[in-house]
Design goal:
Layout (H helix, E strand, L loop, with lengths): L8 H15 L2 E12 L6 E6 L4 E6 L1 H4 L11 E11 L4 E11 L2 H17 L17 E6 L4 H13 L4 E6 L7 H14 L5 E6 L13 H9 L4 E5 L7 H5 L2 E3 L2 H8 L3 H36 L3 H40 L6 H43 L1 H6 L4 E4 L4 E2 L11 E5 L4 E5 L13
Parallel strand pairs: 3-5, 6-7, 6-8, 8-9, 9-10
Antiparallel strand pairs: 1-2, 1-4, 2-3, 4-5, 11-12, 11-13, 13-14
Helix pairs in contact: 4-8, 5-6, 10-11
Length: 450
């Protein structure tokens, strides 16, 4: 016997709602507005009907603010909405996303047909999307020179990435000639040297207001553009063919500026992290070098100690020489006495004088040799001390020199070819690091030899 599956009312309402929402995503519905209610909450509630049926609709406050026109009783409209079921009363209802006058229905059909054609040609394929530069230097803005869009773009650029060069290419964004003007501005941006990103933007509006951005010629111009294009057209609920063909679609002009540029605060945090890492590396290397120098210092004998050793050896040798001289003199004096005694008839003055002169020569030669050795050792000690001072990198910095590095790769900059204006540089002094921006580069001609 099969077991009966019994639904509760709540379960039935829940599963019915899931089935309806799964079957109907965002759809367009045509009908007449009636029973329009405007409660204090700011939401709108009304009935959408035709000759045979009617359905309850809800338009919430945040969506209502984005409408170009206010719904009215008796007005034929085309709404873009999600179908759902209110579980509390099991009532079928429509959650409205967009409301347009009924005259836009034919225009939407044409737009869908063109979208299908272009999509079949591959103009919207992700494989054709160009990669956006991470740090754009020059951005071309193609938009109306007046209105909220250009103001929001410039404010966002100033807040996030003031280093970027902004080139405004003013254009009509609405009307019969707007599409061709936009194409001309894209072609002009491609001719400007250094432009590495294009932002195509305007404020929100109805489908007629955004018609220029659904133009086939404009779509093909964006597709053929060699420079990455960001489309920031209308509000989040608006969409155009230019959004689909662009390399990146932004919900609003402000979002386009945010997607196009990095946040300078995040960049500053990244630079600070790099600076911290660089400081740690430098301190570690300095400690290693200091330990190496301490080891070498322990191996080296201080000049004063060396001189003391030489002085002790000299004193010892002097005593030995004195004793030797005394012994030598005593020995020869004894022999002289013997000779004098044995050879009374010979005068001993001449041999004694000659021996005495030889002793003086030896004595003077010994003193001169000792003084020469002492002078040579002093000079060698001074030269070694001077060499140690010259090899000390901190002494070089202390004399006013500095080391210039590229903070992005930590490489030392030794010539003008390694740096450009507006590039960041880090200058290391003897007691500080300076983070600077290059304003101009002046080439110094080398001095010609005379």
């Amino acid at each position: 016997m099969r077991t009966k599956e019994i639904y509760t009312v709540s379960r039935l309402a829940f599963e019915a709602r899931g089935a309806i929402e799964k079957r109907f995503a965002l759809i367009w519905i045509e009908g007449e507005i009636s029973n329009l209610s405007r409660p204090a909450s700011g939401h709108l509630y009304f009935t959408l009907k035709d000759q045979q049926s009617q359905v309850r609709c809800a338009l919430f406050r945040n969506r209502r603010r984005q409408l170009g026109t206010e719904p009215e009783n008796g007005k034929q409209v085309l709404i873009r909405a999600r179908v759902t079921l209110y579980e509390g009363r099991s009532e079928f209802q429509i959650m409205v996303e967009q409301v347009e006058p009924i005259g836009e229905g034919a225009l939407l059909q044409q737009l869908e047909a063109l979208k299908t054609t272009l999509q079949a040609e591959g103009l919207f394929a992700e494989t054709h999307k160009k990669k956006l530069p991470a740090y754009p230097r020059t951005i071309a803005l193609i938009t109306s020179p007046v209105g909220a869009a250009i103001r929001d773009l410039l404010i966002t650029f100033e807040r996030r990435y003031p280093a970027a060069r902004i080139i405004l290419l003013p254009s009509e964004v609405q009307g019969k000639d707007a599409a061709s003007r936009l194409c001309d501005r894209i072609a002009q941006a491609e001719q400007i040297e250094g432009v590495d990103l294009i932002i195509l933007s305007r404020g929100g509006g109805s489908i007629e207001d955004l018609h220029a951005f659904n133009d086939e010629q404009l779509v093909r111009t964006i597709f053929a553009c060699n420079i990455p294009v960001i489309a920031g057209i209308g509000h989040e609920s608006d969409w155009t063919l230019a959004d689909l063909v662009a390399d990146l679609r932004a919900a609003t002009p402000t979002a386009a500026a945010e997607l196009a540029t990095p946040d300078q605060r995040q960049l500053q945090e990244w630079v600070n992290q790099l600076q911290t890492r660089l400081t740690d590396v430098l301190e570690r290397r300095l400690r290693d070098h200091q330990q190496h120098l301490d080891g070498e210092r322990r191996r080296l004998i201080h000049p004063g100690q060396k001189l003391h050793q030489f002085s002790e050896r000299l004193t010892h040798n002097w005593h030995l020489l004195t004793q030797l001289q005394r012994s030598f003199n005593t020995h020869h004096l004894a022999r002289l006495k013997q000779v004098e005694t044995r050879l009374l008839h010979y005068s001993p003055l001449q041999p004694i004088y000659q021996h005495h002169q030889r002793i003086n020569q030896l004595y003077n030669g010994l003193n001169q040799h000792i003084n020469t050795q002492l002078s040579a050792r002093k000079q060698q000690t001074g030269e070694a001390a001077a060499a140690l001072t010259v090899l000390n990198p901190l002494a070089t910095l202390a004399r006013g020199y500095a080391v210039v590095r590229n903070p992005q790769n930590n490489q030392i900059i030794s010539g003008a070819g390694q740096i450009n204006p507006s590039d960041p540089v880090q200058i290391q002094l003897s007691d500080a690091n300076l983070n600077c921006i290059v304003e101009t580069i002046e080439i110094i001609e080398p001095l010609e030899s005379q």
